[in-house]
Each structure stands twice: as C-alpha cells, then as structure tokens.
Amino acid sequence: MSKQDLIKIGEFATLAGTNLRTLRYYEELGLLKPTLRSDGGFRYYRRASAQRVAMIRDLQELGLPLERIREIVGIQPKDGDRTALLQRVRRALEEHQLLLAAHLDALKAQQGRLETALAKLKDCSCCDELPAADNNFCDPCGSTGECLPEGLRALF
Amino acid sequence: MSKQDLIKIGEFATLAGTNLRTLRYYEELGLLKPTLRSDGGFRYYRRASAQRVAMIRDLQELGLPLERIREIVGIQPKDGDRTALLQRVRRALEEHQLLLAAHLDALKAQQGRLETALAKLKDCSCCDELPAADNNFCDPCGSTGECLPEGLRALF
DNA sequence: CACAAATCTAACCCTAGCGTGAGAATACAC
DNA sequence: GTGTATTCTCACGCTAGGGTTAGATTTGTG
Fold first, then answer.
1. Overall domain count for chain A
2. A112 lies in some domain
3. CA dist A136 to A152, B47, B73, B129, B141, Å?
4. pTM higher than 0.90, yes or no?
C-alpha cells in the first residue's frame, strides 16, 4: 500500500482493460472511487483495484445494470463482511434471474407471433385475390376463410 | 375523400387508439404524414389512415423497430404493389427473426451463467475458508478445488 | 525553466419511443 | 368579437454506457 502502488488513471485503465471515460463514469455512479486524489485533481488507483473493475464487468456480463451492481459492491467490504457480500450478490442474482426469465418469455412469445405471421405471409404470397373494398383486412381470408393473425391485420 | 373525411389529430388519435405525441413522432420519423395541413398548421388525417397506424403497431408488436417499419411501409403502396409490399414485409420479418434468435441465444447464455454463478455461490455460502492472501480469487476453491465460473472471479 | 504528455472538468451526442410540460397560436361555436 | 377547446412547436426528461470533443491544468523530465 505504499505510494509505489498508486498509478494514474491511464495506466490503471490499461491494467483493468477499460478506458478513462468508463472509469470516471463508474466513479460518478459511486461504483469505484480512486484511492487518492492529488492536489491537482489527478486520480490515483491501487493496482489491486483492477479486480474490482473485473468484478463489475463480471456482474455486467451476468446482465445486471450498473445501478444494481452499485447496490451490491458499492461499499468496499471488509474481510468479515464476506458472508454479507455473498448474500447481497445472491439476492441480486436471484432477482435478476426472474427478470431475465420474464424477458425470455416475452421474446419467445414474439418469436411465436413472428412464425405465425411468416406462415400466413407465405400463404398470401401465392394468393391472387385482392381484398374486397369493404374488407381491406382480408379478414377472413377470401381463399381459406381463415382469420388473420393479430399481427398482420393491417397489412391489406 | 371529401373534406368531410378529414379529421384533426385528436379525433384521429382516438380513432387509431394512440395519442398526439405518438402520431407526431411517427410523422417525424416519416412513418405517417397527415393528409393535409391547414394554413394555421393543423394536421388533418383521413379516417382510413387509422389502418396504417394499426399496421405500424402490429409490426411493432412483432418486435420491429420503427426505423425498419418505415423502410417497409414508408411509401404508401398502390393497389398493384401488394406483392412488393408482402415481399418487403417478409424480408424484414425474416431478418428480424435472425436478430431475435441471436438475442434469445445471448439471453439463454446469460441465464446459464447466472445458474452456474448461483450454484457456486451456494457452495461458497457454507464455506468457512477465507481466500489466501495471494489468491483473493478463491480460484481454485480451497475446499473443493474447483475453479470459479468466469462470472465470479472477482468476488473474493 | 520549458515543454510534452497526461489528465482534468464540463458538456453535448448517440439509441427508442415516447411523456410531459411551456407558451403561443388556431379553429370553431356563439 | 370573444371565449374556450384544441393544436402548434419547441425542448428537456427518462434508461445505459459510455464516445467525443474543447479548453484548461498538472505532472514529470531534461
């Protein structure tokens, strides 16, 4: 923890595999404060803090937004707090798991609608009938008598 | 198509099931222009144009961004262009299907990482060992000897 | 001391799809 | 003409994660 260990933001960014703007943005969000500020305002980081950046990145890859990450790792945990940290991480991950599941469901539903729409379009492509003047929804279809899927009502 | 048919934006919004801001936004994007502008600047729409809004909404529900939708329906198709329109829609939907699939894969991968991370966390919760001073990644784990999943390297 | 490289703050830009005003002007009924 | 409802054009706000300037300092070296 000697002064030797302190490096400026440029070197730290390289070390942590990121860039200046991102580090300053993290600081702005309260995610990672530089260990020291010089009188002139320069940021000085500990090399070891690169691990903190790695952790932030890891949690980002798991899909957590930076705000949530701050809630988890915003306060530098002491050694004894390891259990508490694990708790926080676990709760956040579980919560995020639910969100992710919901998001997946929504996208799968969208996928289903897309397939239906494409199937219907395939039918329509070989159809010569133009919709009647009073039924430009083609609903029900003049050929098959089927109703159109929701997502394509207005195509005709 | 007489002047009787032209309505102002408020009534049109109600008819189309949307609101003023959205309609003006659609116009800004080139999705739907009012049929007429009064000398004072008021927008006048045809009732029939509500179908166009419906179509935009339908394509939105299929997940297409408004920019793509504009590319599809940006130009008012004439009757004879139905085939061409169907083609454009089909191509756009197929393209979007690919994007959606990729998106789904990414989310599923995220889900997998989440599960792995949570499983590992469960192990760690019952672990009393603190990481050695020279290995604050707990990697490999002092208890099980297993390596940590990518997403949690920096937790320790 | 002088100079170059690094860093500082502040600010605006981007994607999407509007929400929500402010303040001015219009349209229409009476 | 006058009142009131409607609409007009800005223009900023939101989420996330920075990118990319500009102009001013600071640091460190010779």
1. 1
2. no
3. 12, 14, 16, 71, 66
4. no
